[in-house]
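The methods section describes the discrete structure representation at length, but only in general terms. Since the whole study asks how a given chain folds, the encoding of that fold should be made plain. An entry of this sort, consisting of the sequence and the corresponding backbone structure tokens, reads as follows:

. . .
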Amino acid sequence: MAVKIRLKRIGKKRAPHYRIVVMDARTKRDGRAIEEIGKYNPKAEPSFIHVESDRAQYWLGVGAQPTEAVEAIFKASGDWQKFKGQDAPAPLRVKEPKRDKQEIFNEALAEAHGTLKTEAVTAKKTAAKKTAEKKADAPKADAPKDDAPKAEAAKDDAPKAEAPKAEAAKDEAAKDEAPKADEAAAEAPATDDAKA
């Protein structure tokens, strides 16, 4: 049985997608495949190519023959050079990631209003702004450290000012208790005399 690695067409009219498949040479183009080893989309910009390299190497190693189109795909992905023991080609171009919808919205908003405000208010961005503001305020927090000795001196003066007030309060309490103690002492001998 002759085994080929070829393309199996899927997709709509004028919008083809292909699967890279291993199949018997006698089966029809879109017939039953032995194994699917990759995908190819020529309409994407740049073309989308995904090949399971280990399976491609296995099938090439056991003698499966790639068609011209599949051989070109293998050369682009580097699998053909790997099989032949040659140097790898330049890496494939990759489609740029989609832009964030929030970013697109903010740009449209700035264009419509003619302002440079480029951020919408979201919980994450608000939290990020607060942390950035805290970091910006950190050097300002260092400035009061120069005033720290003055603050410590003020703290030292405060207990001294409070100390005379506390002593005066203790003296007044002692004066109030002294007459009470004298009265108690005067009453105590009288009761002792009565008992005697």
Observations:
- Strands lie at 3-12, 15-24, 35-41, 48-51, 65-66.
- The chain has a mean pLDDT of 77.
